[in-house]
Amino acid sequence: MSVKAVRVRDTVRFEDRDWRVLGVCDDHVDLSSTGVSDRVVSRPTLLGAPDFAVLGGQQRRPLVRTPEFDALPQAVQDAAVWWAEQLAEVVDGCLSTGEGPNFDVSVTTLRQREVAKVAQLASRGRDVSLRMLRPRPTCFGS
C-alpha cells in the first residue's frame, strides 16, 4: 500500500485536470489550474479521488550530506536537520503539519510566517528570535 502525500508546489492530477498545489494546511489543499478558478478542496477528497496522482513538483533541496557533515557530532547533525525543517516550513508553508492558516502560503507573507514560527516555537519552549529565522548567505567570503 502506497502512502499518498501532497506538498506545496506539487503538480497533481485531480478531476481530469492538472493542478498546482498552492498551500496545504489543516485539512484542506489550495489548488490552481490554468483556465479555471482556484479551488480549495479537503485533503481526503483530493487524496481519495480515483484519478489523484502527484505528477511532479519542486521538491525542497535536500540537506547536503557531505563527509564533513557526516563527521560532525550526531547532536550537531540533528540540530542542522531540525533547523532545515523549521526554515523550510517558513519558506514553503504549512505542508502537512496541520499548523493551520499561520503557515498557509496563499494567505500569508513570509514575514507573517516568520512571526508565526517564532510564536509556535516559543509555545514549545524554544526561545527563537526573528533574527534567527532571517535568510543567511549560502556561501562564505570570496
Q: How would you sum up this structure in a few lines?
A:
The protein is of the alpha+beta class and 142 residues long. It has 5 helices and 5 strands, in the order E-E-E-E-H-E-H-H-H-H. It has helices at 43-48, 67-71, 74-92, 110-123, 130-133; strands spanning 10-14, 17-25, 28-32, 39-42, 53-57.
Structure description:
With 142 residues, this protein is an alpha+beta fold. Helix content is 34%, strand content 20%. The protein has helices at 43-48, 67-71, 74-92, 110-123, 130-133, and strands at residues 10-14, 17-25, 28-32, 39-42, 53-57. The chain has a five-stranded antiparallel β-sheet. α3 packs across α4 (110-123). Residues 137-142 have low confidence and may be disordered.
Helix content range: 25-40%
Count of runs of 4 or more consecutive helical residues: 5
Mean pLDDT: 77
Radius of gyration from CA coordinates: 17 Å
Give the percentage of residues in beta strands: 15-25%
**Strand-pairing-aware structural class:** alpha+beta
Number of strands: 5
**End-to-end C-alpha gap:** 50 Å
What is the approximate shape? globular
Low-confidence stretches: 137-142
Q: What is the makeup of the main sheet? A: 5 strands, antiparallel
SSE topology:
Elements: E1 10-14, E2 17-25, E3 28-32, E4 39-42, H1 43-48, E5 53-57, H2 67-71, H3 74-92, H4 110-123, H5 130-133
Observed structural traits:
142 residues; 5 strands; disordered C terminus; globular; alpha+beta; five-stranded antiparallel sheet; 20% strand
